[in-house]
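Consider the tokenized backbone below.
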């Protein structure tokens, strides 16, 4: 179980995910794989300034 601010939790879980991947999965670096992401967040809040900024290209199609 993990609990803290959104940024800390997502960073920690991301590191855990890559650790598990590297330790238990055999990945061929030459493979090319695609994924489809739905409902990707459009904005995120900067913890230092408190202002919202784009998470990715603002001209891509977003849902919502």
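A designed sequence for it:
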């Amino acid at each position: 179980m993990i609990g803290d601010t959104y940024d800390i939790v997502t960073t920690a879980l991301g590191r855990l995910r890559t650790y598990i991947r590297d330790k238990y999965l055999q990945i061929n670096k030459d493979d090319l794989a695609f994924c489809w992401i739905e409902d990707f967040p459009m904005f995120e809040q900067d913890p230092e300034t408190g202002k919202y900024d784009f998470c990715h290209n603002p001209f891509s199609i977003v849902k919502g």
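The chain has one domain: 6-54.
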